[in-house]
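wait is this the right file?? whatever heres the structure
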């Protein structure tokens, strides 16, 4: 039986650092529905694979 990998979850701080943005921008995008996240308790987390997929989609939109 194969072992499933657990998706890497990023915090708001990690995502902001990765994208070179302020934390507030991440919160704004989240509340505007531009990106999706998972709220665990009071903390937001973002699936790394979903963020990478979203970035690729954004690149394709801007470079047809």
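ok assuming it is, sequence goes like this
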């Amino acid at each position: 039986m194969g072992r499933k990998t657990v998706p890497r979850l990023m915090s708001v701080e990690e995502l902001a650092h990765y994208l070179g943005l302020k934390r507030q921008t991440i919160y704004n995008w989240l509340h505007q529905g531009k990106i999706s996240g998972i709220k665990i308790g009071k903390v937001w987390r973002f699936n790394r694979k979903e963020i990478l997929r979203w970035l690729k989609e954004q690149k394709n939109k801007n470079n047809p």
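The chain is about 50% helix and 15% strand. so i think its the right one actually
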